[in-house]
Structure formats: structure tokens, C-alpha cells
Design goal:
63% of the residues lie in helices and 17% in strands. The chain is an alpha+beta fold and 110 residues long. A three-stranded antiparallel β-sheet has the order 1-3-2. The chain starts with a helix and ends with a helix.
Length: 110
């Protein structure tokens, strides 16, 4: 079994939650999301992020608007919809439960 593959799968499992959390703070541009995810050691590339953003938008959790840029083409800024906010609340509760459960198991010494 390969440790690195398992670590990648663990990160992928929480990527959607992290992206929604970043967007929940306000309008955000995709490259800013990539920068924050990368600085947090969540290894993400554009080829992973953009399809995920499209899927979340198609599910009604995100919306975007185009904003003109002085230094190039217009930029797409993402925000959460009300459905996205409710979905994120549910994920946050699940995350808290998972952290508690994991800590209970990993801190249990016989």
C-alpha cells in the first residue's frame, strides 16, 4: 500500500468542504482559492479545481459573476447561494463529528 496515495485521497475527500468554506467568506476568484489551498498544503491544480467549481455551481451551491479586470480578461468571482450556505452548515456539522470520532479512536490507548 502506498502512503502517498492514501494521503492524496484523504485530501480529496475534504477538498469540497474547504472550497465551500473559502467561498463562504465572500466573493472569491479561483486563483485566490488555489493560492489559499496550496499555502495550506492542500495539493490542488487548476484541472481539479475548475471541474469541481462547475459541479458545485450546477448543483446550485455556487453562483458567479464576471468582473472586468484592468490587467486582462474579465474574472469570474464565486459566492455561495443560500442552498450552498445550508449545505456548508451540514458539512461543518459532519466535519465536527468526524474530528471528534477520529480523536476518540486515535487517542484511545488500551
Amino acid at each position: 500500500m502506498n502512503l502517498e496515495n492514501t494521503q492524496v485521497q484523504m485530501r480529496k475527500g475534504i477538498l469540497e468542504y474547504c472550497i465551500l468554506h473559502i467561498i463562504s467568506r465572500g466573493e472569491v476568484y479561483a486563483s485566490d482559492m488555489l493560492e489559499e489551498l496550496t499555502s495550506a498544503k492542500m495539493i490542488v491544480v487548476e484541472g481539479t479545481l475548475y471541474p469541481l467549481l462547475t459541479r458545485l455551481k450546477n448543483a446550485g451551491l455556487l453562483e458567479y459573476k464576471w468582473v472586468e479586470s484592468k490587467s486582462g480578461p474579465p474574472r469570474k468571482y464565486y459566492t455561495l447561494t443560500n442552498m450552498g450556505k445550508n449545505f456548508l452548515d451540514g458539512l461543518s456539522n459532519t466535519w465536527k463529528d468526524l474530528v471528534l470520532s477520529t480523536q476518540k479512536i486515535t487517542n484511545n490507548s488500551k
